[in-house]
């Protein structure tokens, strides 16, 4: 059996491990996007004006909130693109998943293709925002969230030698 072969009975990855990987990846990407905005695109000025503004200064508040939302939206888009490519790669997951010894496979334990990964990650928005998606995994014997069910995928724990 090779390093990335799935054993006959794969251990489903638990939600804490999955959320940990998501948190790690999304924080790193968000910090990178925020650093670009802060150093190159003037977010430092928006932040300073917001922190020094009189509480009733709507211009400073609006500028800060608009730029913060833009950072969040760009980071989310980059995360979804990154996760889509990473989960279809030979790594079978993001760096966060790799660090926590989990990976995304199809129901037969094989690596997923880019189309299936795109479906999984597109559905992740609905699944996570509804909060019911991850809770769905608690009732699933293989811990499938909604987005895993839709894409025909599962996340497994890989025991690293």
Overview of this protein structure:
InterPro entries: Pra-immunoreactive, RDD. It comes from Luteitalea pratensis. It is a multi-pass membrane protein. With 161 residues, the protein is mainly α. 63% of the residues lie in helices and 7% in strands. It has one domain. It is built from 7 helices and 3 strands, in the order E-H-H-H-H-E-H-H-H-E. It is elongated, with a radius of gyration of 19 Å. The protein starts with 10 loop residues before the first strand and ends with a strand. Residues 1-8 have low confidence and may be disordered.
Spell out the key features of this protein:
161 residues; mainly alpha; 3-stranded antiparallel sheet; 7 helices; 3 strands; 63% helix; disordered N terminus; membrane; cell membrane
Q: What would a concise description of this structure say?
A:
This is RDD family protein. The chain is 63% helix and 7% strand.
N→C terminal distance: 13 Å
What's the helix-strand series? EHHHHEHHHE
* Residue runs with pLDDT of under 50 for 5 or more positions: 1-8
Mean pLDDT over the residues? 82
Percentage beta strand: 5-15%
Q: Give the structural class.
A: mainly alpha
What general outline do the C-alpha atoms trace?
elongated
Q: Please report the total strand number as a whole number.
A: 3
Strand order of the largest sheet: 1-3-2
Please identify the oligomeric state: single chain
Sheet with the most strands? 3 strands, antiparallel
Compute the CA-based radius of gyration.
Answer: 19 Å
- Report the total helices: 7
Count structural domains: 1
Percent helix: 55-70%
